[in-house]
Amino acid sequence: MPAEYFGEFLPFLRMWLVEQHRRVHVMALEKTFVRDGQRRIIGSVTTGYTGAFDTLVRDEQNHIVGRTSERFQTTRDEHGNLVSINTADPGLLIGKRK
User: Fold this and answer.
1) From CA 75, how far away is CA 68, in angstroms rounded?
2) Buried b or exposed e, range 44-81, using 16+ CB within 10 angstroms
3) Which candidate, 88, 83, 94, 92, places its Cα nearest to that of 40?
4) What residue ranges do the domains of the chain occupy?
5) What are 86-93's contacts with CB under 8 Å, separation 24+?
6) Residue 55 in contact with residue 47, Cβ under 8 Å?
7) Does pTM surpass 0.85?
8) How many whole angstroms separate alpha carbon 40 and alpha carbon 27?
9) Fewer Cβ close by (within 10 Å): the C or N end of the chain?
10) pLDDT digit string (tens) for 46-87?
């Protein structure tokens, strides 16, 4: 009796495992724009990367300004130098407009 039960159950188990595998490997990137007081775009923050760096920060010319890591609570500039070791704040990488 158990062999018959598992024989019918295995196709559903396989489908469930494949679906779980797909969900884990799908990256949902989200881009947020940073604006100044006059609603001009001064930068953007892209989140959703898997790995050590969770957030990619770009300036208004779309050049990479730096990266932040929620996992390690660090902020690094475009050269990989540490900007902050106790916060993952994209605002530290986007300077104030002059």
Assistant:
1) 4
2) bbbeeeeeebbbbbbbbeeeebbbbbeeeebbbeeeee
3) 94
4) 28-90
5) 88/54, 88/55, 90/34, 90/43, 90/45, 90/55, 90/57, 90/66, 91/34, 92/66, 93/43, 93/57, 93/65, 93/66, 93/68
6) yes
7) no
8) 29
9) C
10) 887 666 567 888 888 888 899 888 888 889 998 989 999 998
Q: 11-48 pLDDT, tens per residue?
A: 666 777 766 655 555 557 788 888 888 888 888 888 87
Q: Tell me the C-alpha distance between 56 and 66, whole Å.
A: 6
Question: How many angstroms from the chain centroid is the CA of residue 35?
Answer: 20
